[in-house]
Design goal:
Elements lengths: L8 H13 L2 H8 L3 H15 L4 E3 L4 E3 L1 H25 L5 E8 H5 L3 H10 L3 E8 L20 E6 L9 E4 L2 E6 L1 H4 L13 E4 L6 H5 L12 E4 L2 H9 L5 E5 L3 H6 L3 E2 L6 E2 L3 E5 L8 H13 L2
Parallel strand pairs: 3-4, 3-5, 8-9
Antiparallel strand pairs: 1-2, 5-13, 6-13, 7-10, 7-11, 7-12
Helix pairs in contact: 1-2, 1-3, 1-4, 2-3
Length: 301
């Protein structure tokens, strides 16, 4: 059979309620419908599908094998629809705020603090999405937030990467980290060259900056492995695959979670890039955005 869209999604809702209660009469009460109307909508759905979904008795109904197989998919779809509606629209009295942040920030530093923001601003319904490079913060958000530009963005890069209204938040300290047994073999910067060095290609501050003034020889000959984000680099180092560069303070939790330690206590380099907070150009500000900015600045002082 050439399948088309189900003509009425209400048929699906009625089916789910009747299947869950195993009663057309009870489903009618829950849906504020008459029992004959429930029965008719179920018949319409069965006619469209070409299969009986219920076996009817004198005073009860029982799901057929086809109906029992169909029910989980229906319940999952309805649950997903309701969850998405709640995430996008929330209670009518709430304010909605969409914040796009650097992927690394969303995996450690920010989630640890969001409970405090929610406690202080329970009326704000916050949605968080991610980017990884300055270009990600210059393009419209795709996927789940299609059609919705963020109200605020927290990007990472140089001041010239972002709009003129960008407000510098904080920088980073770059630190070589590894599993404890690997770190124990490293006594001086030169020893790092005996190991695989995991480089994050999207950052300006990398191994050349960390080791440039500390080791002899051509650093281009080192054994590098590349990835595009620090979260993956931390995970790779945690397996013993190599040595990664932590980026404090935003990667501190990831370092602890993966059981990584600094390779050399005093080998720390200030990064060349910083985190910036800004609003998309020509995007109207919300009071919720102002509340988030005020709260965020208090988190970094």
């Amino acid at each position: 059979m050439a399948f088309r869209r189900i003509p009425s999604l209400n048929w699906v809702r009625v089916f789910e309620t009747a299947a869950r209660t195993e009663s057309f009469a009870q489903a009618a009460k829950l849906l504020n419908m008459s029992a004959p109307a429930v029965s008719q909508q179920i018949k319409s759905l069965e006619g469209y599908l070409g299969r009986e979904l219920f076996s009817r008795g004198a005073h009860h109904v029982v799901l057929t094998d086809e109906g029992r197989a169909f029910l989980p998919a229906v319940q999952q779809s309805l649950s997903s629809l309701e969850a998405t509606a709640a995430a996008l629209f929330g209670p009518r009295e709430s304010e909605h705020l969409t914040v796009q942040v650097l992927f690394l920030l969303s995996c450690s530093w920010l989630p640890e603090r969001l409970a405090d923001f929610e406690k202080k601003h329970p009326h704000i319904h916050l949605q968080v999405t991610c980017g990884n490079t300055p270009n990600d913060f210059q393009n419209d958000i795709r996927g789940f937030f299609r059609g919705h530009k963020p109200d605020l963005q927290i990007g990472f890069g140089s001041a010239t990467d972002f709009p003129e209204n960008a407000e510098r938040l904080f920088g980073e300290t770059v630190i070589p980290v590894a599993r404890p047994e690997v770190a124990e073999m490293i006594h001086q910067p030169q020893d790092l060259l005996q190991h695989r060095l995991i480089e994050v290609s999207t950052h300006q501050s990398g191994w050349l900056q960390v080791l440039g003034a500390s080791v002899e020889g051509d650093l281009s000959d080192a054994n590098y492995s590349f990835t595009d984000n620090t979260v993956t680099a931390m995970a790779m180092a945690a397996t013993g695959y190599g040595i990664a560069l932590a980026r404090s303070p935003v990667s501190d939790t990831l370092v602890d979670t993966h059981g990584l330690v600094p390779c050399i206590d005093d080998l720390k380099v200030k990064g060349l890039q910083h985190f910036y907070l800004f609003s998309p150009l020509a995007h109207p500000a919300k009071s919720a955005a102002s509340d988030f900015r005020t709260w965020l600045l208090k988190q970094i002082t």
